[in-house]
Every structure is written in C-alpha cells, then in structure tokens.
Specification:
Blueprint: E1 6-10, H1 21-31, E2 39-43, E3 46-49, E4 52-54, E5 59-63, E6 69-73, E7 99-101, E8 107-109, E9 112-115, H2 120-123, E10 129-131, E11 136-139, E12 142-144, E13 150-152, E14 178-182, E15 185-188, E16 190-195, E17 198-202, E18 205-208, E19 217-222, E20 232-235, E21 238-241, E22 250-253, E23 261-265, E24 268-269, H3 286-289, E25 291-295, E26 312-313, H4 316-319, H5 324-327, H6 365-375, H7 386-403, E27 416-424, E28 428-438, E29 441-450, E30 463-465, H8 475-478, H9 485-494, H10 498-504, E31 508-512, H11 530-535, H12 539-545, H13 552-570, E32 579-583, H14 585-596, E33 602-606, H15 613-619, H16 631-634, H17 637-642, E34 649-654, H18 665-681, E35 688-693, H19 704-720
Parallel strand pairs: 1-2, 2-5, 3-6, 4-7, 5-8, 6-9, 7-10, 8-11, 9-12, 10-13, 11-14, 12-15, 13-16, 14-17, 15-18, 16-19, 17-20, 18-21, 19-22, 20-23, 21-24, 23-25, 25-26, 30-31, 30-32, 32-33, 33-34, 34-35
Antiparallel strand pairs: 27-28, 28-29, 29-31
C-alpha cells in the first residue's frame, strides 16, 4: 500500500457525488490506476439497488451507518440467467451476490448488505455478500438473506454437480483468505454462513429466520480445505432467532465438505439451537474429518453434553489455540485489532440473547427519595389559626403561580371561533370552537349545552369545566364524540365521557383540549395511529417550555383560567356555582385550576391525589405535565389541594389504582389528612368528601348523581352562610 488515500463519495441526493457505488468504484479504476494506493468510498444514507463488485485491493467501502445505508439485490439461484448459461439456464448460487469482494485488504463498514430475493424454497440460494480475499475486515455491518446469505471463499476444489460453481471465481485458484467480522449481524436460515475461508467472527449476532419447519435450518456449512489449521471461529457471538421459531429446530452446522471446521467460544446459544448441535449431512466420513467444537458456551442450548459424539468440547487450554491473533496470523502476523484482548459479555446475556442481565444496579431513586423526605414540603402550612391559614394560602398561591411560570404568560383578548355545531342525543347542542389563550395560541374545546339546563336562583346556567385525561383522544372522549371506535374503547375502559354525562344531567359543560392532546398535538404527536390519537403527549411541550421558564402544568392552568374568563363574558353562566370535574390527567388539571383560581366554586378530583414519593417519583410513569421543576421541594399534593379549602371538594380514589403507588390508599390517606386538617381548621369539615371505588384506574360513576348533588348542596350552603 502506498500513497495518500483517495476519497470518492456516493449520494442519491448530494450534487457532485456519484449516484451509485458501482459508479464510484469505476471512477476509482480510472482516476487511481495504481492499485497500491488506498481508495475510500463513502456512502451517504439511502437504498442502493445494484450489484457491487470490488476487484481492487486497499478499498474501504464505508456507509454512514448500517441502519441508513442499504445495498440491496434480489437475485436467486432458480432465476433464469440472461445468457441462458448455467444448469437449466438458471443463475445458480454464485452469480446471485449483492456485493462481491474479489481482492485483498478490503474493509466494509457501516453497511447493510441484503439479498431480498426471498425464501430459498422458492427462489433457491441467494447470496448477499460473496467474500473471497485475504485480510478482509467487515465491521458493524448487517448481512441479510435467507439461504446462503454469506459466502466466504474459496470454493471447494470440485463441484458436486457439473456447472454448480458458475460465477466469478469458478476457475480461479483456490486460495484460502483470512476474514474478520466484528460487531455484525448476519441473518438467514439454511447454510447462511458457508465456504472455505479462515473466518473469525467476534461479537456478532447470528440470527436464524423462522421457516415454520421441524428443521428450520443450519447456521454454517463450512468447506474448510483438507490440511487447513482453521475454518470458522465464532467468539463472543450470540445465536438468536425470530420469535416463534421452534425450540431445537436449528443446527449449528453441517459439513459442505468432509473437512469442515467450525469452533464456538464464549458464545450464547438460544433455545432454537438443537441440543445435538451438529448434523453430518448424511456423510459418515465427516465424523472423522470434521472439527466441530465448542467451549465456554452459554444460554439455553449452551450445554455441549448432548452434542453428537463426533463433536468436541474444548477446555480452557484448548481454547487458547483459537484466539483471534492465532487464527488470523498466517505468515504475516495479521491481527486486525492490533493486539491481545478479547473480553466479551456473552456470559451475562439475558434470556433474549441480546441484552446483558444486570444483577446489581446503582440507582438514583433511593437518594432522591431520601432528599424528598429531607427537603420536601418546605412551604407546607405550619400555622395554628384560620387567619394564619388564609395568609399562608394567599402567599402559597402566589408562589405556586410563579413556580408554574404563570407570571410569564401572555394575556390576549378573548376571541372565540366556532368550528362546527351539531345536535347530539339527549337534546344537547355540541359546539366545537377554539379560544385564543395567548396571542395566536388557540385552544380547541367542546361546549355542550342541554336544551333544559339547570339554573341557579337568578336563572343562570350551571356549568362545569371538564378537563380530560391522558388516554381518551383529548376532549373528544369527555364530550362523548360518537362513531369513533378508538374513543368508544376509551369510554368503555375508563368512563371517560363525563362531560356528556354532566350535560345530560342539565349542566353546561366545557371540555378543552390540553396542550399536546387531541387537536393540539404538535408534529411529534400527530398521526392517525391509535396510540398517537388516543394518548397524545406533553413531553414535547415540556421540552419546549421548561427551558423558557414555563411548565406544562402552568400552561394548562393558564388555558383553563382563560376559559373561565370566556365564561364570565357570556353573561348566561352561573359563575357563583362554577365547577371543575376531572379524572386522571383531568384530575390533575382540576386540582391545579381549583387551587389557583377561586372562581372555581366546587371541584371533583378523581384518580389524582396521592403522595408524590410513592407515585410520581417512584412509579415515574406519568406524563411530563406532572413533573414541575422545583415544586416537590415546596408542596405535596395534599398541600396543593388545601388551597381549595373551604370550597367543596370531592376526591375520588379507586382501591386498586396503580397510580396510588405500592401502599395504595394509605398513600392517598396521608395526603387527605393534610387536606382534612385545613378544612377542620376553617370549620368546614363537611365540605370535604372522599369516595372510594372498587377496581383499578377509572372514573367511578355508580354514585355520580349523588356526588354532583352533594357538591351542589355544599355550594348552596356556602352561598347562604
């Protein structure tokens, strides 16, 4: 090798680059006639459908990543050849390659090389990579096919059938090359790693595809020439398979020729591997000529005790002979890694063969929970009198307002734009509209108006704001939008249609879309798949808002306060009776809105009142809107709920709600004790009610009419007090 490396770039899009890999290699032949000068071909992301041939030494073919650069072919052995040559005019195995390496000192890196011709039972053998050269390195590549995915030349000396070797090396001298595969994924089904090379596979995943047969395949089919000291060596590799593949249905190898050598060291063998290990391909002579061996194997099929008697189990001393630097040394001492050291983690692989099972974790949670216990609730009420409490409430409300980022919000004039209006069952008019909550920020909401609304003593309509939870397509489920199966599922699962239920009781209900849900999904959360449609996400909002000093909880509270501003402008709403009703994520929004805005005169919080230590911190599975920076140092949920006192508050919990945390209702009761103390101090114990429902996370509706009647009566008593 001599001279400075010459660079050629391939891209399907970039101006000035070659449009195909073959074109770049042809340009290298023209522009760099001295084959001792190294050539590097860089391939940009894309799918390159071509048959690539590398026939000069010192070539590096490097993709941006194996995931983004795919070289794809689709030829199978049973397909007709263009010139009619071959057995029965067919291509045969060795003309089907996607990539051919017919040179020494070649490196392939960051590529997916695929033959997608299909199942060998239909198309015959189909080679993805035909590798026939010395000192070949294949690094971090995916090599994908079905039957005969990876051929490691040279060919055997003689064909089993005339014309069986038709292809680029049919008449070439049989020279055994050394080939090194590092961190590759190689997949196929029948004989998908085969040939006569001296090949060392280190840290590779060898993945068998499922053919739904009693024998699903054979990983290797070596044809090691007689007298060669080494064939295939797999070190630190994981032998995995498609899901559903039958246990014991794949053999590690069968001898293409009687002197085949395949050795496994420190490999993990999945349950799909036959406990017999190897098959002789009905060649009794192979019992004496082959070397099939293994040592320090792991996984469900890692025990060599049941291997066929003509296979070998290696001891530690035997294994030293198969170290990388020995296998690949040859006469020139070649070692592509440049020295000793070959530690692998296969001994610790988990049951899937793809991840490490970790026994000891060094977690942050214990320290953070300890910090919460030490430093949390620093702003909790510590006074003794109602006067102390009212002063605390005013100061804490201001502090909460600031920590949520509400002081940074941009107030805009109230503006409503109606999108559509329909009549729904129960003599209810449902209007879909948008409200401007900030300048050029619009909140969609449903307004449900019954034909015979409940009125207060002044003839004004009683009303509930109904924020939604996080698994019901935003406000759509709360408003009872019909004819959408995904919404129907959510309603059946959680009783999510509480806005419609209240409207049927005679209340005007307003069902807003929170930021990141329903019609307010940003581009990352948009889409028609059920998960995107139903669940939405506020993670994107949190990532955008928090660096600006805002919070998702604050943004949603602001929007709902602007909704109250709008209701005030209507003139037909009984603002002295305004309620807020929410379940799950809607419960969190009800809690914050009611705590911050005294214009909410009664509140129903379902599925959201528990200690943050056991729930939000430990479970760590709630949406981003639950995690306000700095909040837990000041207040727990019970403290926030105390800000509602003395207004009527109904808290509903479910016995087996997983969000309550491991201690269940005990975690809820601890927070309710904080709230009870506040109501008791103000002499309004009767304005706090805790309802417990059976089952897991859902809105309990068995006593909904009584619950709403209780809230109404408590508001009425407060009004006349």
């Amino acid at each position: 090798m001599s001279g400075k490396e010459q660079l050629f770039e391939v891209s399907l899009e970039r101006e000035g680059a070659y449009r195909s890999i073959s074109a770049a290699l042809e340009a290298a032949e023209r522009c760099v006639p001295d084959v001792t000068v190294p050539v590097r071909v860089l391939v940009a992301p894309g799918e390159y459908r071509e048959q690539v041939e590398i026939r000069r030494p010192y070539v590096t073919l490097e993709g941006e990543t194996a995931d983004s650069v795919r070289i794809v072919g689709g030829l199978g052995a049973k397909m007709p050849s263009e010139d009619g040559s071959g057995q029965d005019g067919r291509l045969g195995t060795f003309r089907t390659y996607t990539v051919l390496v017919d040179a020494d000192d070649v490196t392939l890196a960051g590529l997916t090389i695929e033959n997608n011709a299909g199942d060998g039972r239909e198309v015959g053998q189909a080679i993805a990579l035909y590798a026939d050269g010395d000192r070949l390195v294949v690094d971090a590549c995916c090599i994908k096919g079905h039957q005969d995915t990876l051929f490691l030349g040279p060919l055997p000396l003689r064909e089993a059938k005339p014309g069986g070797f038709i292809g680029p090396k049919q008449f070439a001298p049989r020279r055994v090359g050394r080939q090194y595969f590092r961190r590759c994924r190689i997949e196929g089904d029948v004989d998908f790693i085969f040939g006569g090379a001296r090949a060392y596979f280190e840290g590779c995943e060898i993945r068998s595809l499922n053919r739904d047969m009693d024998v699903n395949g054979y990983v290797t089919a070596a044809s090691t020439p007689q007298g060669e000291p080494y064939g295939f060596v797999f070190h630190g590799c994981s032998f995995t398979a498609d899901e559903g593949i039958a246990p014991g249905s794949v053999y590690l190898g069968r001898p293409w020729r009687e002197w085949a050598q395949t050795v496994l060291l420190e490999c993990w063998l999945g349950p799909h591997i036959s406990l017999e290990g190897w098959w002789d391909w009905n060649k009794p002579a192979a019992h004496d000529g082959t070397l099939y061996a293994g040592g320090a194997l792991f996984g469900p099929a890692g025990d060599t005790a049941a291997w066929v008697p003509w296979a070998h189990c290696l001891t530690g001393q035997d294994s030293e002979r198969y170290a990388r630097d020995r296998v690949l040394a040859g006469t020139d001492g070649w070692d592509p890694e440049g020295g000793d050291g070959d530690a692998v983690e296969t001994a610790g692989l988990s049951a899937n063969g793809r991840t490490v099972h970790i026994e000891t974790y060094y977690e942050d949670e214990p320290a953070l929970r300890a910090r919460l216990k030490r430093e949390g609730r620093s702003a909790a009420f510590t006074g003794k009198t109602p006067t102390d409490f009212e002063a605390w409430k005013a100061a804490t409300r201001t502090r909460l307002y600031d920590i949520l980022g509400l002081s940074l919000m941009d107030r805009a004039p109230i503006e409503i734009r109606e999108l559509n209006r329909v009549r729904v069952a129960g003599s209810i008019v449902r209007t879909h509209a948008v409200l401007q909550v900030e300048h050029d920020v619009w909140m969609p909401f449903y307004l449900l108006e019954p034909s015979r609304p409940k009125l207060d003593e002044r003839g004004l309509k009683r009303c509930y704001i109904c924020p939604h939870g996080h698994q019901g397509a935003g406000a759509a489920s709360i408003a009872g939008v019909a004819g959408v199966p995904a919404v129907d599922d959510a309603v059946r699962k959680f009783n999510y249609d509480y806005g419609l239920r209240l409207a049927r009781m005679g209340y005007v209900t307003v069902c807003p879309d929170a930021r990141g849900w329903g019609y307010r999904r940003d581009w990352k959360g948009q889409g028609d798949d059920e998960n995107s449609y139903l669940r939405g996400t506020c993670l994107n909002q949190a990532r955008m808002a928090e660096p600006l000093g805002l919070t998702v909880a604050g943004l949603n509270a602001w929007d709902n306060m602007r909704l109250i501003d709008y209701l005030e402008t209507r003139g037909d709403i009984a603002m002295g009776d305004l309620g807020c009703f929410g379940f799950s994520g809607g419960g969190y929004m009800t809690l914050y809105l009611s705590a911050l805005d005294p214009r909410v005169r009664k509140a129903f919080v379902s599925g959201y009142l528990y200690g943050v230590d056991d729930s939000l911190l430990h479970l760590n599975g709630n949406c981003s809107c639950n995690y306000t920076p700095g909040l837990w140092r000041l207040l727990d949920m019970g403290d926030i709920a105390s800000l509602v006192a003395p207004r009527p508050l109904l808290v509903q919990s479910c016995e087996k709600d997983h969000l309550n945390g491991a201690r269940g209702l005990a975690n809820v009761d601890e927070q309710l004790d904080i709230v009870r103390d506040a109501y008791a101090l103000l002499g309004k114990d009767e304005n706090l009610l805790h309802e417990v429902c059976p089952g897991g996370h859902h809105l309990g509706v068995a006593h909904l009419a009584e619950d709403i009647e209780w809230l109404d009566s408590q508001v009425a008593e407060c009004a006349h007090a």
